[in-house]
Amino acid sequence: MRLLNRTIAASLVLGFAGSASAALLNASVSTGVASPVDLTAAGNQDWAIFDATANGDGELLSGSDSTMPANIFSFALPEYNAKSSGSGINSAVIEIAAGANFTSDTSPIDYSYTDGTSPVSETTAGGLGLAVRTNLAEAQGPNGRFVFEIAALDTVNPTTVTVYGAHKRAGVDFVASLNGVADDVDVLAPIADTTSFAYTVTFTPDNIGDLLTLSFGTNGQSTAASNNFNTVRVSGIAVNAIPEPATAALCGLGGLMLLRRRA
Questions:
Q1: Is the model's pLDDT at 148 over the cut of 70?
Q2: pTM value?
């Protein structure tokens, strides 16, 4: 199983060729994700899916609830599978503070892929994922968050990163930052029933190796009574490189020429 906490060797190969452009960052969140998500199409650069019962990445989470002490603790997300030879996802962690715990609550999103590490191809069934669960009777405010770091591999063409998850009862806030500067904040209002979401960020960095950080978790708002649990769940992430129009046109032209030769 490929470790998520890894060095991006591709950045050493690409180097700093080409002129740097002004950094751009745009984020949005949508609900009601169509399932299954085709990760091979959505993550041509990299993808990973997570599950609380998976064995990988120095497994630190389990399927049972684990309430954490008052200080914040950070754990690597347990990886269920990942894109073979993918690059871009630098780290994926869950941060837990007082009044929150992590649990095996799954996301209602399934996935399909044909370029996985092990297995190579699959359509998942029954949901994957894990959740931050907050009891508002114990502590108010944000108590648990998922944090992803994506290493930039292209300074010319934009890259899109999508994180897939769900929430129930809890309100959720999403923060995207490039090189530590928070540039975009999105919020999902609390909702009584489990609702899937896709948090999508498109960015163009100044330099190869710049870090995009995505963070989201409970924000203290809830539709339930204070003694009920409120969850924010995550199950997958996809990194998609978007070719510039000229490159895409050349690829299309090359395909047409190949077809003509074969005709």
A1: yes
A2: 0.79
